[in-house]
Amino acid sequence: MVLHERQELPDFVREHNIDNVTLDIIENALKNIRHEMDRVLVTTAVSPIIREQADEFPLIADRQGRMVVGQFGSPVDTVLENSPYKAEDLKDGDVIALNDPYMMEGSTSHLPDILLVRPIFYEGDHVGYALQWGNLMDVGGKTAGSIPIDARSIYEEGVRMPPVKLYDGGRLNEEVLRFFCHNSRTPRETRADIMAIAAGTAAGAQRVKDICDRFGKETYLEACDALLDRTRTSIINLMRQLIPEGERFEFEDYTDDDGLGNGPIKLKLAMWREGDTLHLDWTGTDAQVPGPVNFLLNHRMFQMFAGVFLISAVDPTILFNDGYSDVIKVNIPEGSVLRPVEPAPLSNRLVVMARLFDVLGAVYAKAIGFNVSGSYGTSPNFVYSGVKKSGEPFQTMEILYGGIPAIPGKDGLDGHSWWPEFLAVPAEYMETYYPMIVEEYAARRDSCGAGQFRGGCGIRKVYRFLANGRITYQDDRHHTYPYGVAGGRPGAPSKKTLIRKSGASVELPSKVSDVPVFEGDRLVFETAGAGGVGDPLERDPEAVARDVRWGLVSREAAGSEYGVVIGEDGSVDAAATESRREQIRSARPELPAFDHGDLPPLEEQRRVIAETRRKFNEWLSHELGAARANGRG
Amino acid sequence: MAYNVAVDVGGTFTDVLIFDQQSGELTEGKVLSTPDDPSRGVVEGIETVCRKVGISFEDLNLLFHGTTVVTNMILTNTGSRVGLLTTKGHEQILLLARAWTPGPLYGWMSLQKPDPPADPTDTVGINERIGPDGGVLVPLDEGEVREAVERLVGRGVESLAIGFLNSYVNPAHERRAREIVREMYPDLSVSISADIGQEYGEYERTLTTVVNTAVQPRTMLYMRNFERSIRERRFGGALSIVRSDGGAMSTEAVAESPIQIALSGPSGGVTGSAYLAREIGIKDILTFDMGGTSTDVSLCLNGETPVRRDIRLGYFQFKSPAVDVHSVGAGGGSIAFVSASGALQVGPASAGADPGPAAYGRGGEEPTVTDANVVLHRIPPGVALGGTLEMDEEAARRAVGKVAERLGMGVEEAAEAILEIVNENMHAALRVVSVERGHDPREFGLVAFGGAGPMHANALGRLIRSHSVIVPPTPGVMSAFGFLSSDIQNEFPETYLRTAEETPAAELRATVERLIAQANEWLDGEGVEEEGKRFDLYADCRYYLQNIQIPCRFELDELTGEDSTFLRERFEEAHRQRYNFELPDSPLEIATVRVVGRGTIRGVSLVESEDGAGADASEAVLRTERVYFGGEWMETPIYDRGRLRPNHTVEGPAVVVQDDTTTVIEPGYRGAVDRFGNILIEEA
User: Fold this and answer.
1) How far is CA B280 from the centre of its chain?
2) H/E run at residue B180
3) Residues A461 and A440 sit within 8 Å (Cβ to Cβ)
4) Which GO terms describe its biological process (chain A) (predicted)?
5) Would residue A60 count as lying in a domain?
C-alpha cells in the first residue's frame, strides 16, 4: 500500500540539490518574467480587447510542460499529443500555434483565444516552454467577433488552427499566418496581435536563458522541480488546515440558457477531502447543450482555480504552479456542459465559466467559512460591426462589467471587473475609432444585492449607433439572480433594451447575435448587480444614506430593502429607521444561507426561456425581412 | 548674489544644498522636516546651510524647491472639496474608475479602493455634447451650468473642475462653462480638463483635472506663505519649483497646474544623474536610488532625463509628464519574512522611519535590510547614520535571528540571504527599464544614490553587469543636486490621431508651430531670455490602433514632404529594438504631437578638483573592521569619504563612510576616485 502510493508520487517530490536562497532568487526572477511577458503583449497589441482590456495570460513551463509559474495551468502535453511533433523534435526558434480548444482539452476554451507555445533551449538543451495566449478580435465564423450565440457546432464559430509551427527554427511561417488571418474579418489586427503574442513568448524565453546563464542550467532545472514540490507541499498543508476531512460540501447554480432557448443549465459541484487528496466532482451537472455556452473545462486549469482560491484566501505569497495537480482530483462527467463532445459549439462559454466560479466559491464558503462572497454580476462581450459611411468596414469588441460581490466586512465594487487587470474601454476611444456615441455610462441604481455589506451595482451603458450594422452580445443572469449570502439579497438580473430611432423599443434576451441596428438606434445595456452578504437590516444606516446620495440606491429601496428612512435633506431619520426595521424583522421569514431570488419552479423557468427565445426569433426574422425590404439589411 | 540653493523636502529630512558659483563648492545639510508646515523646515534648512557657508538669504541667486505638498495631499485625500461638472450620462465616471481590479485571480477581494476624489454628491451632469470630431452634437445648456454651480457652491464646494467628453478635440464647451463660473464667482478656483491634458481618455483626464483642482488652493497658500517668508528674509533671487518631469517653473505656473509637481522630489535624483553623466562623459546610465521604503530606478540615454506621460500615486493613475522612474518596494526598511511555503521574502512591507529597523533601537523588532547590513558590518560598528543615529547591533542580530531560525541558518548567513533577495528584487527593477526595453545594461554605467544606494550599488552593478558603478560625492542629497541642474521647462502636447501616410508635412508643421508659439509664450512668462530657449519636438507614434506611444524626435525643417512618413524609419527602429518585430503593412499613427519648451539657467556646474593625489588611498583609512562577504568575515579597511581625493584607488573589500551613507566595495572590485570626486567601482 505504502509502496503503491510512493510510485504515484510525481518525480519532483524528493530532496532538492539547491540551496534555499538560490531557489528564492529564481522564484522571484520567474515571477518577474511573467509580468514582463504581459507588458510586452499589452503594449504592442493592436486590438482593443488586448490593448485596452488586457485580456491575455502568460506562463513558463518546465521541460515536461508543467507550469512552474503562471495562472492557468499548462496544456503543453496535450498540445504535443495532438500535434505531429514530439518534444524531442522541437528546436530553438520554434513556436507552435493553435486555437482549437479540442486539441488542447480546453486550455483555451473557444476559437478567438489563440495559444502560442515556444520551447526554450539553452546551449542546445531543452529547458522548458514559454506560453502565452490572447483573445483575438475575430477568427471568422458566422458572426462578427466569432462568438455567435446560435452556433450548433464549432465549425460555425470560425477557422480552427490545429497545432502548427508558426515559427520554424526562428523563421516565420508566413503562409500559415496569411491563411489564418485571411479568414478573419479583422486580418490586420489579428496579424498584429499574433505577432505581439509571439514577442511576449520570446521575452519569456530570453529571460529563462538569462537565468540559466546566471545560475547554470542544472540549477535552473533543479529549481523548477523544487518550486513545483514546494507549492505542492504548501497546498497539502493548506488543505489539511482548512478543509475538514470526511464531510461533503455541495452547491449548485444555474446559467440562463444556451442562446437557442434551452435552459436554465445547472452546474453542480461536490467537494470532500480524503487524506492529502482533495476531490472535486461535477457529477450532477447538466448535459451539454445544443448552443455554444458549453465550457470545455481543462482538468489542470480547474485544479489551478481550486488551488488559487486557497492560496489567495490564505497566503498570496505562495507561487501558483502545476505542482499540486496530483493532490486535487477532479471528475468532470463526459458529455456534460463542462466536458462536451466534439464538435459541440463553445464560443460563448464565458457565461458558464462565470457560474463555475460562483459555484466553486460557494462550495469553499461552505467548507471553510472564509471569504464567503455573494455572486458576481455579469461580464458580457459586446460586438458592433458594419460599414462606416466612408465605406470602411468596422468591428468593435468590448467587455462590459457588472457588480463585484460583497465579502464579509466590505461592500462590492460597482461595475468593476471580476478578472484581474481588465479595463473598461474609454468612450472617447470607441467614438474616435468607431461610429457610435456612448450617451451614458453609469452605475445602475438598485441593481446591487442588499446586505449588511451590499453587492456592487451593475452598469448602465447607452450606445447610440451612427452607422447601420449588426450587434452581438453574450450576457447572462437575465432569468436567474446573482445570489446573496448569509441573509444578503441577490443582485438584479441583467437587461438589454433596443430603442429604434422611431422610439419603438424592444427588450432583447440574454444573448443575441447579428441583430440589425440602424443609424440613430440606441441600445441600453444593463449588466447584473452582485449579491450582498449579511442581513440588510444590520447595515449602517449612514452607508445606506450615502448610497442614496450617490445615486446607487433609491430612497424607496433604502426603505424597503434596508429599513432605512431617509429624510427630506438626505439624512437618516433614526427613529423612523428603528421602527421600520423592527416592523420588517418581525414580519419576515428566517433568512436563507443562500438567496437565489424569487424564481418560479424549474419547469416554468424552462418554459419562459424557450418562449422568450421563440418570440425573439420571430421578431428578429421580421426585423431582418424589413431591413432587406428597405434595402439596408 | 553668487550662490544657488536647492531644497528637497522628504518624509523625514529636508535636504539643502548650496552651490558657490565662484568656487564651484557644494555645501549640504539636513534638518528634520516639519510636516505640519513644511515651509518652516525649508526656511530653517536654508538658514542652517547658509550659516555653514557664511552667507545670508541676500546672497542667494536661484532657489530650487522640490516639495511633497501636493504628493501628500493626494495620498491622504486632504485637498479641498471639489465640485465636478461632467457630460450628462457620465456622472459616475470617477466611481466606475474604468472597472480596474488588481491581479492575481481574486485580486478584487483585497482591493482597498478610495472614494472618488470628487464626491458623487458634488458631481453634476450637464446637458451638452461634443462629438469625437469636435462637432457640437448637443449645445451647452448654460442655464443648467448656472444652476449647478449655484447649487454646488451653496453646498460648500471649495473649487470646481469641468470635464466634458471629447473636450480634448474641442474645448469650447468647457471654456464657456468656465467663463460662466468666473462671471458668477470670480474668486472660485476652476479648472477645465482640456487645459490639463489634451489627450483622449475621459477617465484619466477628468481624474487628473479633479485632483489638480483639489490640491490647488492649499498649494497656492503654501507657495504664497513660503515666498513671503523668504522675501521677508530678503531673498531677492528667482524661486523655481521642481516639476515631476525634472524641469522647473515659477510659483505662478504652479498655481495653474499644481498636478505637475506631484512627483517633484523623486525627479531630482534622475536629472542630477543625467547631468553628472553628461559632465563625466558616461552618457548612457542607469540610476539606482535606494531609500528607506522603496527603490527608484531609471534609464537615461545620451544624458537625457527620461520622461513618461502618466504617474501612479497610490490607487490613482494620472496623465501628467513625470520622470520615468520604476519603483519597487525594496529599501533599507523592507521587512524580511518566511512565507508559508518556506520561501524567504523581503518587502514590500517596510518598517518605515518609525519604528524603523530594529537597529534604530526605537522598538522595531522585525528584521529589515538595514539590520542585515548592520549584522554584516556593511554599516560598520560605531558609524552613526546621518551623523547622529547609533546602530544597535545586538537588536539587529536578534531580529535577523528570527528569520535565521526559521530557515535553519546562522545569523550571518540569513543576513546575507536577505541582502541577496532584496538585491534580486532591485535587479528585476533595473531589468524592467533596461533589458525589457531592448537595452544591454553592459553598455551602461550605474549611478547609485539615496541613503542605502551606495551600500548595494556594487552588488547591483555585478548582477546587472553594468560596466561601472558611479557613486557621486553627495549621494544622500542627489535630488537637491538634480534640482540645481534643472531647466525651466514645460510641455505642450496635443492629441493628433492621424496617420503619417495621410498627413501632409505642412499640416503637421502648422500644428507644431502653434505649439511652439504656446511654449514660447510660456517661457516668456517665466522670464527666460531668447538665447536660453530651446524647443524639442516630438511625434509620439504607434502602429494604427496600438496601445503604445513611442516618441520620435524631429526638427522643424524636416516637415516638407507630401506626407509625414519620414517618421516611420525612426519609429520602426525603436519598435524593433524594444519588441523585436515590425508591421510594414500597418499605417503609422501619430497619436500625439508634443513640444517641450526649455530655458537653460545653469544652476550648477561641476568643478574639477585641483587637489589630485596618487593612487595610494591609505591616508583616508580610518581603521579596519571585520565585514562579512560571501560566507566569511574579512578584515576590511574603513575609509573616510571626506579624505578621498582624485586618483585615489580603493581596493575591495572596503567600506567608505560619510555622513549620510556608506559605500561598499566588494572583494574583487576596485573603486577609483575621479576628478570630480565620484567613486567609480569596477572589477579589479
Assistant:
1) 23
2) helix B172-184
3) yes
4) glutathione metabolic process
5) yes
Above 80 in pLDDT, residue B1? no
Strand B326-328 vs strand B445-449: parallel, antiparallel, or unpaired?
Answer: unpaired
The CB density around residue B513, as the number of other CB atoms within 10 Å, is: 13
- When pLDDT is averaged across residues A99-118 and rounded to a whole number, the result is 93
User: Is residue A48 over pLDDT 70?
Assistant: no
More confident residue, A290 or A371: A290
> What is the residue type of A474?
Q
With respect to residue A159, please indicate whether it lies within any of the assigned structural domains.
yes
C-alpha angle B623-B624-B627 in degrees, rounded to nearest 5: 140
Torsion sign over Cα B443, B449, B454, B459: negative
Q: What is the pLDDT of residues A423-462, one digit of tens each?
A: 899 999 999 989 999 999 999 999 999 999 999 999 999 9
Chain B interface, best mutation among A190, A214, A428, A465, by max B CB count within 10 A: A428
Cβ-based burial of A625 (10 A; exposed 0-12, middle 13-18, buried ≥19) = exposed
**DSSP assignment, residue B532?**
G
pLDDT tens sequence across A267-303? 999 999 999 999 999 999 999 999 999 999 988 889 8
Report yes or no: A189 at the B interface, CB cutoff 8 Å.
yes
Fold of the domain built from segment(s) B266-330+423-484: Nucleotidyltransferase; domain 5 (3.30.420)
User: How buried is A250 (Cβ within 10 angstroms: 0-12 exposed, 13-18 middle, 19+ buried)?
Assistant: middle
Residue position matching grid coordinates 452607508 = A543
ipTM of the complex: 0.88
CB of B89 within 8 Å of a chain A CB? The answer is yes
Please check whether residue B87 is in contact with residue B165, taking contact to mean a CB–CB distance below 8 angstroms.
Answer: yes
B28-77 pLDDT per residue, tens: 988 888 878 888 889 999 999 999 999 999 999 999 999 888 988 888 88
Task: Establish whether domains B3-73+220-258 and B266-330+423-484 are of one fold.
Answer: yes
β partners of residue B85: B124, B162
> Which of A25, A419, A426 is facing B201, going by the closest CB pair?
A426
* Residue A579 predicted with pLDDT over 80: yes
pTM to 2 decimal places:
0.87
Give, as one character, the DSSP assignment of residue A3.
Answer: H
Interface check for A362 against chain B (CB to CB < 8 A): the answer is no
Q: Is residue A595 part of a domain?
A: yes
Residue B645 has a pLDDT of 92
Task: Give the domain-ending residue among A169, A200, A235.
Answer: A235
Question: Residue A623's domain spans which residues?
Answer: 372-535+591-633
Residues of B in contact with A428 (CB under 8 A): 132, 165-166, 168, 200-202
Cα-Cα-Cα-Cα dihedral sign, residues B528, B529, B531, B532: negative
What cell does B559 get?
516637415
Closest CA to B471 of B489, B456, B493: B456
State residue A4's pLDDT score: 39
**B3-73+220-258: which CATH architecture?**
2-Layer Sandwich (3.30)
